[in-house]
Amino acid sequence: MRQQQTPSPSTASLLPQRSTVTRGKYSITDFEIKRTLGTGSFGRVHLVRSKYNRLYYAIKVLKKAQVVHMKQVEHTNDERRMLKLVDHPFLIRIWGTFQDSHSLFMVMDYIEGGELFSLLRRSQRFPNPVAKFYAAQVTLALEYLHSHNIIYRDLKPENILLDRKGHIRITDFGFAKEVPDVTYTMCGTPDYIAPEVIARKAYNKSVDWWSLGILIFEMLTGYTPFYDQTPMRTYEKVLQCEVRYPNYILPEARDLLSNLVTRDLTRRLGNLVNGSADVKNHPWFGEVDWDRVLSKRIDTPYEPPIRHAGDASLFEHYPEEELDYGVQTNDDFGYLFPDF
Ligand SMILES: Nc1ncnc2c1ncn2[C@@H]1O[C@H](COP(=O)(O)OP(=O)(O)OP(=O)(O)O)[C@@H](O)[C@H]1O
Questions:
Q1: N or C: which terminus of the chain carries fewer CB neighbours within 10 A?
Q2: What is the pLDDT of residues 116-147, one digit of tens each?
């Protein structure tokens, strides 16, 4: 797992606003917990099955004490709010949230095909048309988020899941934020973070277009352009922004990348007056029929081999932990999460 940069505390304070009692809809006893699908900096995602409709879901669980300790209260509330707001074919759908004394729970669609990251590592690198297919879907997802003034801020192949047909679903809205103009918080994953974020300058949606460039580069080559052994060295390379393009990257792809992975915000595509249209109209995407991409009327390059409902064989294995879900003891932090 690539490490994330944990954002520094934000100034907003969340005062108790509402009762901490979980409202009616769900509780953990409504689900059978199967296995762990993924772990992150603040929590764990489980495959679960509803005892009522027998359908499979993914539940993300965050420990309240950990969220508070790592100063992620505002981001966690934002994640819940963003997920509830968004409605797009390439973004994860949330069904509900709840909490017990120790944990916060988010019930989402289970996306069976695994991470794009795993497919990419298995394939080493993607042929140009395959990279273009995934990049086109990501571009539409970013365009949608930005049109709602949401910056995603954590684009990387680990957060892009494949559904059973092979279309993408972006998960992990842990750093997504509604930002009408600019913001300053340092967050993201070192290999994918934009120079203006590292330099602690004001930034906006431009950072997602930078990350799209890094993603396309990684899909085409199998590695990120500023990879180094420590985050510090990676940051130095990001700030210098000298990208070496292997010969097999086609000229059109290279042109697009050099206009996404650029420090110069007056040149970065997506960030200019025409917004996402400049990315979509770039010659690398020349033959893409955007309406067909959006309506999923395009053959996918890879259909995950899913054997049965609830199959999790395309996810990596993680050590399972003893779970204390459902406990009702002292709840010191519940008041900080009024919307769960
Ligand atoms: N809806 C889902 N369906 C299937 N798997 C999922 C789903 N959501 C998340 N996962 C898996 O769990 C992993 C961790 O989820 P997520 O990134 O939301 O957690 P996180 O704690 O925020 O992690 P990170 O520290 O990387 O941000 C994902 O990379 C993915 O493999």
A1: N
A2: 999 999 999 999 999 999 999 999 999 999 99
**Cβ of residue 60 lying under 6 Å from some atom of ligand 1:** yes
Angle ∠(76,166,57) on CA atoms, nearest 5: 45
12-112+309-325 has which CATH code? 3.30.200.20
Question: From residue 340, how far is each of 51, 84, 323 by CA, in Å?
Answer: 21, 11, 20
CATH topology for 116-294?
A: Transferase(Phosphotransferase); domain 1 (1.10.510)
User: Which residues lie below 8 Å from residue 299, measured CB to CB, with a gap of 6+?
Assistant: none
Q: Where are the domains of the chain?
A: 12-112+309-325, 116-294
39 CA to middle of ligand 1, Å? 7
Catalytic residue among 78, 100, 154, 208: 154
What was the pLDDT predicted at 41?
A: 77
Question: Model confidence at 15, in pLDDT bands (50, 70, 90)?
Answer: very low
Task: Give the three-state DSSP class for 290.
Answer: helix
Determine the pLDDT at residue 6.
56
The upper half-sphere exposure of residue 203, i.e. CA atoms within 13 Å in the direction of its Cβ, equals 28
Does ligand 1 lie within 6 Å of residue 45's CB atom? yes
Query: Is the beta carbon of 145 within 6 A of some atom in ligand 1?
Result: no
Catalytic annotation present for 324: no
* Ligand 1 centroid distance, CA of 224 (Å): 20
Q: Is 71 annotated as a binding residue?
A: no
Same fold, 12-112+309-325 and 116-294: no
Q: What is the mean pLDDT of the chain?
A: 91
